[in-house]
Each structure stands twice: as structure tokens, then as C-alpha cells.
Amino acid sequence: MDELNEQQQQRIKKLDVLREAGVAPYGTRFEVKDRAGQLIKLHSEKTKEVLEEEKISCTFAGRIVALRRFGKAGFAVLQDGSDRLQVYLKKDHLTEQAYRVAEQLDLGDWIGVTGLLFRTKTNEFTVEVTQLTFLSKALRPLPEKWHGLTDVETRYRQRYVDLISNPEVHGIFATRSRIIAGIRAFLIERGFLEVETPMMHPIPGGAAAKPFVTHHNALGVDLYLRIAPELYLKRLIVGGFPRVFEINRNFRNEGISTIHNPEFTMLEFYMAYADYQDLIILTEELISSLAQQVLGTTVIDYQGKQITLTAPWRRWSYHQSILEVNNLDPSVLQDRDQAIAAAKQLGVAVDPKWPLFNIVNELFEETVEPSLIQPTFITDYPIEISPLARRKDSNPALTDRFELYIAGREIANAFSELNDPLDQRSRFEGQAAQRAAGDEEAHLVDEDFLRALEYGMPPTAGEGIGIDRLIMLLTNQASIRDVVLFPQLRPEKSQ
């Protein structure tokens, strides 16, 4: 029998002892009157004399994360959320049954306590326990030296233990919640209506991505997990809602990396009677105000780089950025052979069979994107890679579109929406031809969406913001797995 199982057996024996003492090892309701964090905030600065005079009683609960016994007394540290507070367990201050319970305590157990706040001889802020309630027995011991654990995948796979052992992780996800709440409040304040759209689609659309496929037995049809809610949100604009948004979960059957998870959170919002320039201003305002609200500043540190989120941010055209970063002649953008030669010179791997726009886009992704540390709006994307965006009036080969990059990563994608149903049909058909030629991410023809456009959609601007990447930025996390509670992982190897 291994050590873990031996420890588990010892803990199971303690269950029997508790039951014999008339104590339920998996208890019922406990009335929490105080929180550890609140007690620390309100009283931890008070002197020993003040605490003795005020005789402050409290009742709170938590998990035991530290335990020291000596003679007929002992100290335990209870973790309540991300806060920890020490309690003093002395036989003379407890009932006989409560002390019997105290003798059976292990790291990881949940208890509820009532007592008085005081300071120990070493001046530690502590609760002197007068009543003890056993709430739940932990059969599996907490890992030792968790902070030194190098197998970070175990932290992601067993997030529940990560949260127990690393209280600072609580802070990341508390900040995540505050950011999402801040986004919601920002948009609602500006007249946006929050909506919910389907997560299973008959046709995958709204983005260039490979979908997950499922099957609906009753209908006898294949459905696709949502890669984006875009086409449904635009249907709502057609229906007469002038401003809508959805904080949604999307699913893309793609690789896993530090910036990609197959299930991720997106914000998408649409404004009737607006264009992409309006969204540039709105995006600056949204992200800079979030930083100020959550962090108290618009100048942040991200992985050793100082990033200024104070508006206005740089605007840089797509083609110009490629030329300037790489010191290339404009002819590279027009001649396929020259584009291939430029890619070879720059060490960018491309398929010689690719069309020109694919080669140029690979140059952008490999050479420009990593250099975009400070917030930058890349504008004027070619129509070939923007099947849902409105053509520019000044140059029909380009679109009224931007992507926002911060810290070398795409954070947002937005454009003036294509509302011409005939142009949209033509582009869908072009995408379908690319798909037939082997491009699994190319868009399919969505006849119902085309029908909706034929009823008339007003001029509209729409945007998607990657919530997970934004949270990575504002919490200074290098991996998307550190801001997703339960990231997707490879199957666990059998023991």
C-alpha cells in the first residue's frame, strides 16, 4: 500500500471516531456570520490591549491549511476563500466533545468556529475558539510544498487543489469576474442590450475556423458548436435592435497553446448606424477604463514590458505595416513571386502554391504581429481575408476593418459590416470555392443569413474582443491556462 493510501486509511479511521462521538463527519448547514478577510480588514491592526477590552466575538468557517499541536492545545490556520486566519484550540475552552473533534483534525478538513479575537504571545492575530463545528472530512491530504511544484499541468488539471494551495490564484479569477462585470456595465450604460444566441448552429459561420461537430438525434442532423455568434447577432440588427452584445463561449477545433484554448470566451457587440471608426474610439474607452477601474492605472506591466493603455492608440494600415517593419518594396504586395522571395529572405515559411493574399498575410502574422507591443489598430485589411466586412469606398480591394493588437497578440477584430446581400452572396460563394479546394476554415454559404440581409440591415459596425486574452493582459499572465478555470488538456496518462 502506498503512502497516500495509508494516509487515506488513517483518515477513514478518524471518520469512525467522529461518528462514535456523535459527530457527523459530513455536516449540514453552518451559519457563517463573519468572513476571514472582513475580520482581518476591520481588526487585525488593533493592539492586544484593545482586542482584550473590546472582546470581539466572531463566527466563520474554512479549510484547515496549517495545523500545529502541543499538549492540550493547538493552532490551526483556516482558509476562507483566499484569506487565511489563525485559530487557537485549547482543551480548557472547549466542550469535551469539541476537543475530541479537535483531536481528529487533519489538513484539508473543513470546520466552523466561534470565538474571541486576540493576539498570541508572539503578537499573531488569532481567534480563541470556544465552539467548534466539524463540517467535512478530507480523505486526501493536501500536497506538500505546493509552491515549489514544477508540474504546472497538474495545477490546471486539479484546479481545486491549486485554489486551495495558492490563494493568489483566487485573485486572478476574482479580477476576471470584475473585468467581465465591468464590460457588461460599460455596454449597458451605452444602450446595448445583452442577448443570448444559439450555441449549436446548422451552418458554422461568423469566423474562419474549424468547428466541432455534434449530432442531434431527434432532428437527424449534424450541428456545429458555435465558432462565433456574429451572424445571429446581425440577424437581431435586421430585426430592429440597434445595439446588442453577447458575452459568449465559442468552440474551435484547433490547436492548444499559451494563447489558444478550444473553448474560449468572447465579447461580441454590434451598433447600428455606426462604422469601424466609431468602434476604435469605443474600444479605446472600454479597455482603458477597465484598466483604470480594475488596476487603478492605464500604464501596466505585462511580462516585463510597460504598456500604456491611455488613449489615443496607434492606427497603422495592414499593408503599410508589412512594408515598414520589413523594409520591403510595395511591389511585394502585388507580385506573387516577389512575395515568395521576400518570405524566403525573412525566414517565413509559405507554400509556393498559396495565392498572393495568403503569402502576404503570413508575412504579416510572422513579422508584424510580434512587434505590436503597444496598443495598435491595424486597419484596411484586404477583402480576401475579410469575407464579412464592408468594402472601402476609397478602395474596393480593401475593407473598413481593424484588428487591435497589444503585447504582440490580437485582442479584438472589428469592421463596418457588409450589408449588401448581393456582395455577401458573392463572397460566400468565393469562400465555398476555397473550401471545396481544401480550406477547412473557409466560410460556407448561409442562405438564411442572406435572406435576413435581403430584408435590409442598416449600416452597422461590429466587434469581437477575446476576453481571455484581455484578462491575461490585465492580470499579467503569460498563458491562457492561467485565466481559464478548467482549461482543455490532453487526456491524463493512466497511472
Q: In what range is the share of β-strand residues?
A: 15-25%
Summed over residues and divided by their number, the pLDDT gives a mean of: 93
Number of domains: 2
CATH topology of the largest domain: BirA Bifunctional Protein, domain 2
What gross morphology would you assign? elongated
What is the rounded Rg? 29 Å
| Assembly category | single chain
CATH architecture of the largest domain: 2-Layer Sandwich
Number of helices: 15
Helix content: 25-40%
CATH class of the largest domain: Alpha Beta
Side-by-side strand order of the widest sheet: 6-10-11-18-17-16-15-14
Name the poorly predicted regions.
146-150
Major beta sheet summary: 8 strands, mixed
CATH superfamily of the largest domain: Bira Bifunctional Protein, Domain 2
What is the number of E strands? 18
State the end-to-end distance.
Answer: 15 Å
Written overview of the protein:
The protein has two domains: 3-142, Nucleic acid-binding proteins (OB fold (Dihydrolipoamide Acetyltransferase, E2P), Beta Barrel), CATH 2.40.50; 165-313 and 374-482, 2-Layer Sandwich (BirA Bifunctional Protein, domain 2). The protein is built from 15 helices and 18 strands. It has helices at residues 3-20, 36-43, 48-54, 96-103, 152-157, 159-165, 167-189, 230-239, 276-295, 318-326, 336-346, 356-368, 421-436, 447-454, 467-475; strands at residues 57-70, 73-80, 83-90, 110-119, 125-136, 193-194, 200-201, 213-216, 221-225, 243-251, 263-272, 299-302, 305-308, 314-317, 376-379, 401-406, 409-416, 460-466. Helix 7 (167-189) crosses helix 9 (276-295), helix 10 (318-326) packs across helix 12 and helix 13 (421-436) packs antiparallel against helix 14 (447-454). The longest helix has 23 residues, at 167-189. The chain is elongated, with a radius of gyration of 29 Å.
